[in-house]
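Appendix B, record 7
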Amino acid sequence: MKKPDNKSIKKIHVWIRAVIQLLYFLFLPSAFTAAFGGVKYIFTQLGSGASLEMTSFLLALIALCVYTVVFGRFFCGFACAFGSLGDALHAFYGWICKKLKKKPVKIKTAWMKKLSVVKYIVLAAVAAACFLGYFTKTQGMSPWDVFSMLHARNFQLGGYMVGVILLALIAAGMCLQERFFCRVLCPMGAIFSILPVLPAFSLRRDRENCIRGCKACTVKCPADLELSSDTSPEAAGDCFQCQKCIDTCPKGNIHTGIRRLKGNEIFLTLIRAGILLVLLLLLGI
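Structure tokens (predicted):
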């Protein structure tokens, strides 16, 4: 039997990721909102002087944070409904531009690096609003609530016009820039990006074996990241574990902290997706 070439393997990886994203989007879209609910719960309780109890929202937040520490931001790259929506919109926009033979408009890399701090401001604003007891007064302004309603086929959006407008603007950003929401606005992304990642699943590259001047992995990366070398202890918190850099590297230099593993092996992807699925089901999400 003929062994598949690199191009075929790359297509298989793309399709596996797309299928996993679609399944999580259709059947487990509330994981993001559940974890985000945990953040709001913590600061609301602290602001009111009430004690913290182990609610389902808080459990979801803790579970996803622990999962991210162990496996990196696999949830963001494969299972987050908002992230998957962004990937779909960006791919659709690129397809439209290709059909029209137009060059896609893209937000400049320098701008994106500056805008990436906004998600920390969003997180701080949400935390402050919850702590001061103002968050309940923002009902109708949340694009996440609007997205959840639309996903549930609830089109009774009266009173949610601000949220609808914000969601439309976010969708436009998603078209222009891959992972726009994740990089710029996601409060959970702000939390995940500052969590430590165990070396086993953080990506590295053999920099000394790279082709001189090659930046294929950075160009392909939706977060414009430059991978750490084997000798660096640093793990990029903004890595979405999308695995695109691994397939793109012409020398095959990219691997996990476990050198025998590239990080995009089919069995490894399915194991991580399976563990996440079991975790979310146990939490009742």
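Remarks on this record: The first helix runs from residue 6 to 27. The mean pLDDT is 91.
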